[in-house]
Structure formats: structure tokens, C-alpha cells
Design goal:
Blueprint: E1 14-19, H1 23-35, E2 41-45, E3 61-62, H2 73-91, E4 96-98, E5 101-105, H3 111-124, E6 128-131, H4 133-139, E7 147-151, E8 155-157, H5 159-172, E9 176-179, E10 185-191, E11 195-200, E12 205-213, H6 219-225, E13 232-244, E14 255-258, E15 270-273, E16 279-287, H7 301-308, H8 311-332, H9 334-342, E17 353-355, E18 359-366, E19 376-380, E20 383-388, H10 397-412
Parallel strand pairs: 1-2, 1-12, 2-9, 5-14, 12-20
Antiparallel strand pairs: 3-8, 4-8, 5-7, 6-7, 10-11, 11-12, 13-16, 13-17, 13-18, 14-15, 15-16, 19-20
Length: 415
């Protein structure tokens, strides 16, 4: 995305242009058409269909919000979004299940953090129950731990199907979704009183009163292309999963998580029975050498150079090198990954694991090396940028879409 595009004409093709057809971008389009019927919305997506990256490459969990500090956007959106997501899935016959989940402490040093999660869950009004080893076995006979909590509002859903339904609902309300070269952004131009003009890879120019940047892994690049200077840079972390061999799937009934490390915004290796069957184990979280770096072999030199020249990358690495080294070790060593799984599921052997598709998380990093742990929005002339949409973004996509639509109202009022 480089160069300029002329916006000498004031003819507008739409009111709001949304870049990105992941679940957040499509929820935004859906919210805009519901908030103000008749609003002309166009969604641009460079892939041939929706939800091809973060939305379609995660564990499919409907998060309860128990991990998130009171008052944070993550807590607010997750607590509201989980119930809304279940309702949305039920209304549109989208596969989903509310299964509850276990958060299991396997070491004494984790017990204070587990008890803190119990208190936080109660602060949020989430149904949580404390479990001892015998009660853990009642829920998950093959899982071992010193203590656990059961979180009743957690579940699983087909988030790709949710995104597809959001796209259909938005189109039914008059929105347009363009895929492939017709949706790949090459240049952006903003001028006072003339809104935003975007040139796509097929040579078309789309003019709008306001732009919403929901580009996920590319959101900071889109922000810079529009003329803004985002405070954060996206550092892609690849989440690597394994799955249990079919004959071993009986070892896991539902969702089982370790007690998370509050110093790092990842949840650790967990066990997830998916909404369509199968049991996923993981993920590791390792730096990727490309924004869409789904394997170690995927390296894009220009993108990698941009990451390595960002001061926040090195400051983050210095701060978290020990944790990161462990993640890389588990990525490169099957015995090490198996050992991480065995903390929760002692019966697992390396031969029980099969490779599964990886995902890449768009983790925003500030110049001082801080990993942004909450949602991060930024606004420029005629523009709203979503610069960090961490888990639970899929769970909370409906209220997030409404929040972005509210912010766009201000951009539409600009002259």
C-alpha cells in the first residue's frame, strides 16, 4: 500500500468504507446498517472470502470475560458479547455450545492466581465454582490438577459461520462486500471536506465520507497509508496448534485451560474440544517472520525488516526473552510441547499428537516495548482505526461493532 490517489471529485460512492472482512470489520458493517438504516457501507477484503485470517484460525472459544480487569474494554465487551454471541448463533442456526470450562492449577505457586480469578469472576457476576481434585475428575476424568474453577458461561462457536452471517445480514441491509483485487487496498487519500478515497488493486477508486480500518494483521500499515502515525506497531505472533489423534479424543470432554501468567497476554497451552468435533491443543505463541507467517518457512523480508527496525520489538524481546524462549522451544521440540500438554493431561504421548493449522495474532506493541493488552482505537480525520483487537475480539464482536459504529458517527460529522 503506497502512493497517493486523487480525490479531486467530491462524488461519493458510499458513506462508510470498512477495510477488512474479519469478524470485527463485518460486525462493524452490520452495526452501521442497523444503527442508521440507509447508511451506504462498502467493505473491502483482499482475500476471496471473509474470515480468512484471525477469525478463521483461532480455537473458536466464546470467552466469559473472567480474565480481564474490571473497567477494561476487554471485560466490558466480553461480558456483554458472550451472551449476545450465543443468542446470535441460536437465532441464525450457527453451530455453538455453551459447555463451561475448567481453569486448572497444576502447581502450588499457581493457587494464589487461581483464587484471584475466582474473585474477579465474582466481581464480574460470572458463575464460577471452586473444584478440588476429585471434582476435576468428575468433569474431566483424564485431567489432573491441585485445584480448579469451573466457569459456566464459556462455550464454543463456529466464528467463520458467524462472519458469513454478518456479511449476509449487512448485504441484506444494503451494504456491499468486495473481495479479491476489488477489495485489496493499494493507496488511501484524505482531504478536508472530501472524505477518503481508496484505490484498490483492480484500479478502481472508492470514495467515502469516512473510513474504518479493521485490517487486523495489517492495521498499522493501513493507518500509515492513510497518513496517520499509529502509536503501536503490529507484531505477528504465530499460534501453533496440535490435535489429538481420533482414537484419543475421548481424553478431553470440553475446555481445559491452565492458570494464565498475568505478565504475558497469552493463555498458555490449553485443550479445546471444537464445535465440529476434534480436540485442539495449544497454542504456542512465537514471533512470525511475516504478518501472515503461518509457518517457520514463511518469511517476507520487507515486513520482517519493518518489525526489526521498530524499537518496541527489541524492548519487548529484552523484557520477555525468557518466556519467549520457552515458546520457541516448544515450537521446535515435540517432546517439549508434549510435556506442556501433559501438565494438564498426563496420559498424552507424543504419538497422540497431529499437526493442526496455525493462526497468527496481530499483537500491538508500543515503542517502549509494552504489549498492548486491551482494545486500542485511534481516530484521524474521517477515519477510525482498530489498532489492537485481541482475544476476546471474536466473542465480543457484536458490541465492538456497535462501539466502532458510534465512533464513526463522529467521523461522518467532520467537514
Amino acid at each position: 500500500m503506497m502512493g497517493g490517489v486523487s480525490s479531486t471529485s467530491v462524488r461519493l460512492d458510499c458513506d462508510v468504507l470498512v477495510i477488512g472482512a474479519g469478524i470485527v470489520g463485518l460486525s462493524t458493517a452490520y452495526a452501521l446498517t442497523r444503527r442508521s438504516p440507509g447508511t451506504r457501507v462498502v467493505v473491502l477484503e483482499k482475500e476471496p472470502g471473509p474470515a480468512r485470517h484471525q477469525t478463521g484460525r483461532n480455537s473458536g472459544v466464546i470467552h466469559s470475560g473472567i480474565y480481564y480487569p474490571p473497567g477494561s474494554l476487554k471485560a466490558r465487551f466480553a461480558l456483554q458479547g458472550a451472551a449476545e454471541m450465543v443468542k446470535f448463533c441460536a437465532e441464525h442456526d450457527i453451530p455453538h455450545r455453551v459447555t463451561g470450562k475448567l481453569i486448572v492449577a497444576t502447581e502450588q505457586q499457581e493457587l494464589p492466581r487461581l483464587h484471584a480469578l475466582i474473585q474477579r469472576g465474582r466481581q464480574h457476576g460470572i458463575p464460577v465454582r471452586e473444584l478440588g481434585p476429585a471434582q476435576i475428575a468428575e468433569h474431566e476424568p483424564h485431567v489432573r490438577g491441585l485445584a480448579a474453577i469451573h466457569v459456566g458461561t464459556t462455550g464454543v462457536a463456529d466464528f467463520v459461520a458467524v462472519a458469513e452471517q454478518l456479511a449476509r445480514s449487512a448485504r441484506d441491509a444494503g451494504a456491499e462486500v468486495r473481495y479479491g483485487t476489488a477489495g485489496e487496498v493499494e493507496a488511501i487519500d484524505r482531504r478536508p471536506g472530501r472524505g477518503v478515497a481508496v484505490r484498490t488493486a483492480d484500479g478502481a477508486v472508492v470514495r467515502a465520507r469516512a473510513l474504518v480500518n479493521c485490517a487486523g494483521l495489517h492495521c498499522d500499515a493501513v493507518a500509515r497509508c492513510s497518513g496517520d502515525s499509529p502509536q503501536a506497531r503490529v507484531l505477528p505472533f504465530r499460534g501453533e496448534y496440535a490435535e489429538l489423534a481420533p482414537e484419543r479424543e475421548h481424553l478431553v470432554r470440553g475446555l481445559v485451560y491452565p492458570v494464565p501468567d498475568p505478565a504475558f497476554p497469552f493463555l498458555g497451552v490449553h485443550l479445546t474440544r471444537g464445535v465440529h468435533g476434534g480436540v485442539h491443543l495449544g497454542p504456542n505463541a512465537v514471533p512470525a517472520a511475516a504478518r501472515e507467517g503461518y509457518t517457520w518457512r514463511t518469511v517476507r523480508p520487507t515486513e520482517l525488516a519493518g518489525l526489526l527496525t521498530h524499537p518496541g520489538t527489541w524492548r519487548m524481546a529484552c523484557r520477555h526473552w525468557r518466556y519467549g524462549a520457552g515458546e520457541v522451544h516448544r515450537s521446535l521440540s515435540r517432546p517439549a510441547f508434549t510435556a506442556a500438554v501433559r501438565r494438564l493431561l498426563p496420559e498424552v504421548e507424543a504419538t497422540d499428537l497431529r499437526p493442526a493449522p496455525a493462526g497468527v495474532r496481530a499483537q500491538a506493541v508500543l515503542r517502549d516495548g509494552t504489549l498492548v493488552d486491551d482494545f486500542l482505537f485511534a481516530e484521524g480525520p474521517h477515519t477510525v482505526h482498530v489498532l489492537n483487537a485481541p482475544s476476546p475480539a471474536a466473542t465480543a464482536s457484536l458490541p465492538i461493532g456497535r462501539e466502532i459504529a458510534r465512533r464513526v458517527a463522529g467521523a461522518l460529522a467532520e467537514r
